[in-house]
From TrEMBL:
Keywords: Cell membrane, Membrane, Transmembrane, Transmembrane helix. This is ABC transporter permease. It comes from Celeribacter arenosi. The chain crosses the membrane at residues 6-25, 37-58, 64-84, 96-115, 135-161, 192-211, 217-236, 243-265, 271-289. InterPro entries: ABC_transp_permease. Its main location: membrane. The keyword NADP does not apply. The keyword Transmembrane applies. It is a multi-pass membrane protein. It is found in: Cell membrane. It comes from the Bacteria.
Length: 309
């Protein structure tokens, strides 16, 4: 195996690209769960965003319009989940699973005429003055706008949840929806807004896969990343900065295994391909054993709110 063929600069720069869709989807799901809602339909929203973004980008020639369409598509599908769980009071777990099945099937239907088509390229946006810094410049400051926005989103969501009145209300709803309702807060509206935001973020993550990371459309293009995003929220104990660490950890393992395959590692390719998912399982098992993650979970997570309570 030729380790010399692995360029650390390219490896780390690729890590940020590979982590971006996971980070976007996990941040959105974290906000949803902080409101007390468990949406297992992240995979469905991601792949819906991927196909919506791809189609619009191809038809308009504008990747920006593609990302906008992806956010709208993911949010629109999430409203189906909101309708089921917040209006009809359906159980959240099967509703989320149904959402994933609907999203995967819908994406397959919409994308069947776009297989093999190349979308318009997304331009990099090197940061002047920083892009030329040795080592750190190519790793951190020579990416497209979505990579930078995903990192900014971590800070923005952290500040929103910690310092803004709306963020405090959202957290209050997630911790005790009965008390929040008694204080006059509109629990269902808060949760619908959170669900829509989570859908939009998942859609953006899906579009990043189809337009940047793997610039093409194929069925199942998200390849389980939505499920990893769900696991990362638990790994992160519902904290934004830990979501960043978890997403970059998974992205790093993904990129590393691809580089090891290219370097001719004497390990079965199937085992290398499984490594990111195995690492996620190991992390979740460790967290469960220590019971740290469970203690930080929103108290109302997954519970149905009845206004008559």
């Amino acid at each position: 195996m030729d380790f010399g063929s692995i360029n650390p600069v390219i490896l780390l720069a690729s890590l940020m690209v590979a982590s971006t869709p996971i980070l976007l989807a996990a941040l959105g799901e974290m906000v949803v769960e902080r409101s007390g809602v468990l949406n297992l339909g992240v995979e469905g929203m991601m792949i819906t965003g991927a196909v919506c973004g791809f189609i619009v980008a191809v038809e308009t020639g504008s990747p920006t319009m593609g990302f906008v369409a992806a956010a709208v598509g993911g949010a629109a599908l999430s409203m189906l989940f909101a309708l089921l769980t917040q209006v009809f009071l359906a159980t959240q777990v099967p509703s989320g699973l149904a959402l994933t099945l609907v999203g995967v099937g819908l994406a397959s239907l919409l994308g069947q005429n776009y297989v093999g088509i190349k979308p318009p390229s997304v331009a990099d946006m090197p940061i002047p003055g920083l892009e030329s810094i040795p080592f750190f410049g190519p790793v951190l400051f020579q990416h497209d706008a979505t990579v930078y926005l995903s990192v900014i989103a971590v800070v923005g969501i952290w500040a929103f949840l910690k310092y803004s009145r709306a963020g405090l209300i959202l957290r209050a709803v997630g911790e005790n929806h009965t008390a929040a309702h008694a204080l006059g807060y509109r629990v269902r509206m808060v949760r619908v807004a959170a669900i829509g935001f989570g859908g939009a973020m998942a859609g953006l993550g899906g579009a990043y896969i189809s337009l940047v990371r793997v610039p093409q459309w194929t069925d199942g293009i998200t390849a389980g990343i939505g499920w990893i995003a769900l696991a990362i929220v638990v790994f992160a104990s519902w904290k934004a900065w830990r979501v960043l660490i978890g997403a970059y950890l998974f992205g790093g393992i993904t990129v590393l295994q691809l580089n090891l395959q290219a370097a001719g590692a004497k390990v079965p390719v199937e085992l290398l391909s499984m490594s990111p998912f195995l690492a996620t399982i190991v992390v979740l098992v460790v967290i469960s054993a220590r019971r740290h993650g469970a203690s930080n979970a929103p108290a109302m997570l997954g519970r149905i709110f009845h206004a008559s309570n």
